[in-house]
């Protein structure tokens, strides 16, 4: 096991008796136990030796054992194949591995999430197609005439739109969705005959299939989220992952590139510094007086109210933009107005986080609080923008809270919109396209040139501009927003998942291209904190899964066992006078020619060794409490230029 | 990839599968990698099993391969020739890993079976127990069977790197090590032994996924 110990202590003339005894015990224990040889932490040559000791006549397996072994292997292979299938039939496996090795598992998880979303969208599409589209085409729907005969007198001499726009450009029509008005992309084309005439109720299928898809997506996402959560929940609200566990498991052995290793080291260093700062801050807080605590609370409220006001301002901007766009549908600046709502939403989502970061940093919060606050407000902003967009659409099309005569007879604004569901579908279609085009434009017009130019030229301006960073949180939130829009549009634009699948597919390759061309990645200072937060919410890359509960149980059992361990050690130490040093790691030299690979000490290497004098519990460094500030540069949420 | 002469025999494959966590394909791939380190004329099966390669050779190879691969394809990096990252120069624990798994008297060279052991411990299917056991040995820089303050300090320095802005100051290091010892040192002897280490690791769900190499 630890042959180096025997090698190191090569100066010893003769083996110590106590050590030998323990070695014998160890050997006996290993030989008599039933555990498979591969589980033993010894070198290959020693595992063979033990196997020989266990079965001196060679491995004689009966037919039954051989059959069982084959069954187990087959079962294991089947499990592997099923897991691969669930993960995406091995789609992009090579690319994911490459990315993980070069850029770390954080970035890799973003791409894994993209794959997950692609599968989700394709599954949704499959459901919709098989339960709605195929029966529809098979059962031969009635004629595609106008659905309603308008007998309404519209105010202002408006005639109901007949769908002939002023601008008849193909590109305009594709981008606004008018080209697809009578296709299966939008709700309007789904017609069904009288209910009693067919066995299969298309209407019910149309209603239920999006619901089923949403339920499926919900379950899928829940499953991914839940993987890492149980441990945290069971261990209490204030539970923080112990720092020691972080230290021991932080290095990612999958990293292969030098640059990725450097980035990882930066991440780890920042994480440690943040944790230490948090610890110091916690101590400081505990020593605060009441007045200080009240003051702290007030500043907290102040910041939140300010940001809340900003959010309210932003969503009212969205409301007005949507209303204006809907009210002026046939103006000359046709396309611009059509894309005004998505444009305003994008602008709001771009400026918002910048302002939030700036405001939050004015107060001197500990890093974790800063990140949490900023992240929560960003998510609120994104959801509120989509919510307000839907509400203002509803107001225009369905006359929420307005008194338009045209709404009374048909329940919706029939004068301006022949088919309001189509209009909603179109709006969401535009939003989806706009998000994707924005991503592409940003990549090719901003990220890449910036990267190339900063590399090519040197000078103060270029150094200040700095290389582009791959910001994990921002990218994840963008993807999630795109998916939310798709879900919102399931009823009105049933083939939107197809569109989204294509967008996700292209996004994968675009982002990968950008990375591989050497963009500097998220040495996001709080990268680990932020990404672990976002990932817990959206992605959850933890692979503890069902082992979490088993692990907890094991931990409890382990704790009890370990107490007995220590008691055992202690009693043995105390019962053998003058043997204080013999259990130490300075093991006896090998007996015989073959260097021993087994630990000559107690079965667990490094069990309580010679009783060294216990160091005094170190006093807290008083200077440390005065908040040695982590360099500001390293503790910021992605600010300014990166976003 | 040599001719048929450099393929492992079926009995050997079965034996290796029994003694490690690797699958047949992984063992064959490992053998192929290992043979590429040996000089051309010594690549037969018998010789490959007896040969040992030095640490320098193992470390020198991946960079060379990577450079050649990069040259061939400007953007596409040839993953097929990717050496396991445990022995990659990017890994700060490369020397410790090679030392821990080496069975030679001077502990500076790996035989093929040592290499298989290494891949087995780092594989996906290895149990957390065995991973934590070997992780403990890797982090034990002075090989005394316990993690004392110097070991921990060296570990943290490996993790954070040598850069000016990444390495921790003396007071931060002290605070960090105090925290670690406070959380993990149950018997309060100032060092962390294997059982305490395994106890701490069991509370970290990320350990198994970070302590692995995907072949």
Automatic annotation (TrEMBL), chain A:
Localization (cell): Membrane
GO molecular function, one term: mechanosensitive monoatomic ion channel activity
UniProt-listed InterPro entries: TMC, TMC_dom
GO cellular component terms attached to this protein's record: plasma membrane
Bilayer topology term: Multi-pass membrane protein
All residue ranges annotated as the TMC domain in the record: 419-516
Keywords on record: Membrane, Transmembrane, Transmembrane helix
Region (Disordered) location: 1-21, 577-643
A Pfam family: TMC
Chain ranges passing through the membrane: 116-138, 204-222, 300-320, 340-360, 372-393, 428-448, 489-510, 516-540
Highest taxon of source: Eukaryota
Family listed: Belongs to the TMC family.
Name of the molecule in the record: Transmembrane channel-like protein
Species: Tursiops truncatus
């Amino acid at each position: 096991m630890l042959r180096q110990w025997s090698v190191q202590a090569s100066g010893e003339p003769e083996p110590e008796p106590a050590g030998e005894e323990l070695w014998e015990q160890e050997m006996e224990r290993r030989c008599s136990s039933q555990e498979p040889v591969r589980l033993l932490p010894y070198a290959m040559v020693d595992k063979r030796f033990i196997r020989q000791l266990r079965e001196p006549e060679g491995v004689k397996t009966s037919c039954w054992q051989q059959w069982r072994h084959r069954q187990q292997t087959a079962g294991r292979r089947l499990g592997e194949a099923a897991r691969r299938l669930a993960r995406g039939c091995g789609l992009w496996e090579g690319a994911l591995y490459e990315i993980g090795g070069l850029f770390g598992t954080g970035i890799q998880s973003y791409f894994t999430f993209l794959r997950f979303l692609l599968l989700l969208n394709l599954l949704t599409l499959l459901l919709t197609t098989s339960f709605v589209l195929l029966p529809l085409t098979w059962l031969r729907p009635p004629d595609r005439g106008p659905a309603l005969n308008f007998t309404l007198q519209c105010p202002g001499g408006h005639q109901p739109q007949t769908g002939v726009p002023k601008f008849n450009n193909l590109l305009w029509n594709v981008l606004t969705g008018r080209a697809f008005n009578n296709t299966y992309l939008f709700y309007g084309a789904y017609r069904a005959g009288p209910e009693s005439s067919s066995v299969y109720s298309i209407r019910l299928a149309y209603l239920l299939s999006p619901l089923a898809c949403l339920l499926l997506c919900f379950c899928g996402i829940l499953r991914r989220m839940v993987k890492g959560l149980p441990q945290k929940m069971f261990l209490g609200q204030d539970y923080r992952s112990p720092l020691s566990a972080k230290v021991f498991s932080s290095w990612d052995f999958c990293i292969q590139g030098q640059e990725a290793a450097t980035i990882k080291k930066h991440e780890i260093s920042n994480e440690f510094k943040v944790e230490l700062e948090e610890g110091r801050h916690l101590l400081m807080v505990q020593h605060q007086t009441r007045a200080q605590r009240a003051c702290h609370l007030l500043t907290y409220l102040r910041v939140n109210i300010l940001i809340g006001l900003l959010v309210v301002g932003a969503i009212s901007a969205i409301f007005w933009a949507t209303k204006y766009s809907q009210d002026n549908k046939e103006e000359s600046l046709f396309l611009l107005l059509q894309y005004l709502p998505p444009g305003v939403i994008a602008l709001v989502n771009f400026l918002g986080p910048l302002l939030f970061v700036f405001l939050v940093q004015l107060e001197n919060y500990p890093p974790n609080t800063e990140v949490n606050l900023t992240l929560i407000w960003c998510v609120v902003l994104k959801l509120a923008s989509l919510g307000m967009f839907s509400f203002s659409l509803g107001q225009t099309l369905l006359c929420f809270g307005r008194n338009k005569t045209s709404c009374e007879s048909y329940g919706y604004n029939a004068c301006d919109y022949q088919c309001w569901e189509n209009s909603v579908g179109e709006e969401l279609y535009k939003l989806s396209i706009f998000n994707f085009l924005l991503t592409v434009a940003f990549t090719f017009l901003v990220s890449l040139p910036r990267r190339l130019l900063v590399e090519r030229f040197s000078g103060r301006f270029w150094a200040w501009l700095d290389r582009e960073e791959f910001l994990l949180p921002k990218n994840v939130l963008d993807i999630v927003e795109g998916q939310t829009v798709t879900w919102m549009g399931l009823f009105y634009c049933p083939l939107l998942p197809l569109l989204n699948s294509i967008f996700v597919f292209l996004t994968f390759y675009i982002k990968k291209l950008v990375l591989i061309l050497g963009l500097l990645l998220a040495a996001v200072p709080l990268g680990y904190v932020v990404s672990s937060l976002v990932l817990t919410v959206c992605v959850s890359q933890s692979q503890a899964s069902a082992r979490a509960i088993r692990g907890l149980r094991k931990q409890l059992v382990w704790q009890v066992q370990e107490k007995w361990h220590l008691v055992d050690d202690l009693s043995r130490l105390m019962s053998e006078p003058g043997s204080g040093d013999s259990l130490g790691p300075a093991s006896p030299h090998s007996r015989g020619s073959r260097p021993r690979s087994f630990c000559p000490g107690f079965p667990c290497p490094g069990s309580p060794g010679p009783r060294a004098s216990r160091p005094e519990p170190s006093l807290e460094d008083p200077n440390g409490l005065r908040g040695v500030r982590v360099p500001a540069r390293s503790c910021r949420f992605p600010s300014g230029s990166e976003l | 990839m040599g001719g048929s002469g450099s393929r492992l025999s079926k009995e050997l494959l079965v034996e290796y599968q029994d003694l490690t966590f690797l699958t047949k394909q992984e063992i064959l791939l490992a053998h192929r990698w290992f043979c590429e380190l040996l000089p051309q004329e010594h690549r037969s099966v018998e010789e490959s099993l007896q040969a040992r390669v030095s640490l320098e050779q193992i470390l020198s190879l991946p960079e060379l391969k990577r450079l050649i691969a990069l040259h061939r394809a400007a953007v596409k990096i040839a993953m097929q020739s990717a050496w396991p990252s445990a022995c990659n120069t990017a890994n700060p624990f490369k020397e410790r890993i090679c030392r821990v798994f080496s069975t030679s008297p001077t502990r500076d060279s790996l035989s093929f079976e040592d290499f298989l052991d290494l891949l087995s411990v780092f594989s996906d299917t290895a149990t957390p127990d065995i991973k934590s056991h070997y992780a403990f040995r890797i982090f034990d820089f002075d090989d005394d069977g316990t993690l004392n303050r110097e070991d921990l300090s060296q570990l943290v320095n490996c993790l954070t790197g040598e850069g000016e802005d990444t390495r921790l100051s003396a007071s931060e290091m002290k605070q960090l090590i105090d925290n670690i010892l406070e959380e993990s040192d149950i018997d309060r002897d100032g060092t962390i032994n294997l059982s305490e280490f395994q106890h701490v690791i069991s509370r970290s769900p990320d350990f198994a996924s970070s302590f692995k190499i995907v072949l």
